[in-house]
Amino acid sequence: MGLFKFLKEKFGKKQQETETTEEEVKVETLSEPEQPEAKEKPAPVVLETKPVEETPEEKPVVVEQPKVEEVKNTEPAPKKEKKPAKVEEAKKTETYVKGMEKSRENFAAKIEKLSKKYKKINQEYFEQLEEILIEADVGVNLTLKVIDEVVAESKAKKIDDAEAINELVIDNLFEGYMNSGEKVGNDVRFQSEGTTVLLVAGVNGVGKTTTIAKLANRYIKQGKKVMLCAADTFRAGAIEQLSIWAERLGCPIVVGKPESDPASVAFEGARRAKQEGIDLLIVDTAGRLQNKINLMNELAKISRVISKEIPDSPHEVFLVIDATTGQNGVVQAKQFLDCIKLTGIVITKMDGTSKGGIILAIRDELGIPVRFIGLGEKMDDLQEFDLEKYLVGLLIGDVNE
Ligand SMILES: Nc1nc2c(ncn2[C@@H]2O[C@H](COP(=O)(O)OP(=O)(O)O)[C@@H](O)[C@H]2O)c(=O)[nH]1
Ligand SMILES: [Mg+2]
Q1: How many A from CA of 231 to the centre of ligand 2?
Q2: Whose CA is nearest to atom 24 of ligand 1?
Q3: Rounded Cα distance, 239 and 230, in Å
Q4: pLDDT attached to residue 313
Q5: Burial, 355: exposed, middle or buried (Cβ in 10 Å; 0-12, 13-18, 19+)?
Q6: What is the pLDDT of residues 253-279, one digit of tens each?
Q7: 348 Cα nearest atom in ligand 1
Q8: Is 246 within 8 Å of 38 (Cβ atoms)?
């Protein structure tokens, strides 16, 4: 049985078994904090930082002793709720199904229409299929590769029924991903001991800061000690935005003065995280792409400097890509890859685009796993990337509808 059929059958059953009430699937919401312009100012730890040289240990950057306690627990940490695993799973699938509605309409619906239009396949059928895949942002390379494979397979197996071909297309599209050996979880990989450092990069506006807040929320809920570090010192607004999040989430934050050296802020973050037994330090970075060389050098420097304080860190480097920018996101990723080793991609704003195929293009072109996916603006809308749920969101939708 093909992958598509398999999913349809499996998911159909699973959905019915795990049907939940409205109340049970209600997701926790924690809305956007007020934007930095807001009058009320948080009280994060501000450090006077000096540009860090390559030997930060010899030049301590702390001028003022940070008072983390002040910003801690301004709001109680989100309550831990125990829910049956099945309900949790159904809730997650629902987030994918909802967040991928536009993509589903653009992709699955068009594919279905195509098989109705052409009972038997011909050249024109393949041309239209190609168009659908490219419009879904699957990427030209992967599209052509898949179509070539399908044409060959259809000839070899003498299949000319459009519906059967569509299934071949879908199986071919995703089998690469399925077989890529990345079925291991996409969750942040914590070090067995000490602080795990996660560096978050990406161009301005892609959703870095909000993704950091969502990740922090996720791990705080799991009982981890999380600290944020605002190494995006380029815009004062960025520092304040992250500080507001830290306050809402009740987690400590290390910030620098606007325009101060990002590497020194990151270094101080690493030092403090280690000292305070933090489990996860998440470092926000600037994203001025117009100054690519500087930006990339800065990221590399942040990385080096952190590793002096916490060896082998950053353990995770996530690049955030805005799904609505389509193939441009792939181009951005290639630029970042030129100077920093990425351990994962976070795709945001999937809910705002009909081009959900971008995930496949990224996997195909970059070979870096998509670790998390942003399916909306609520805290729980950032989900660990799960291929099966993604496919259900893209192809099947809510079978009980
Ligand atoms: N709809 C939607 N909006 C998102 C998502 N992730 C981030 N955003 C929005 O994108 C905008 C820019 O986010 P921000 O974190 O400030 O981007 P940064 O400049 O990369 O730090 C904000 O309005 C976020 O609410 C998502 O998954 N879905
Ligand atoms: Mg930001």
Answers
A1: 10
A2: 207
A3: 6
A4: 95
A5: buried
A6: 999 887 889 999 999 999 999 999 999
A7: 27
A8: no
Whether 383 shows a pLDDT value over 90: the answer reads yes
Structure tokens at 401: 């509808």
Q: Would the pTM of this model clear 0.85, i.e. be above it?
A: no
Ligand 1 pocket, mutate which of 100, 377, 378 (most atoms under 8 A from CB): 377
Binding site membership of 348 for ligand 1 (Cβ less than 6 Å) = yes
- pLDDT tens per residue, range 282-309: 999 988 765 677 878 889 899 999 999 9
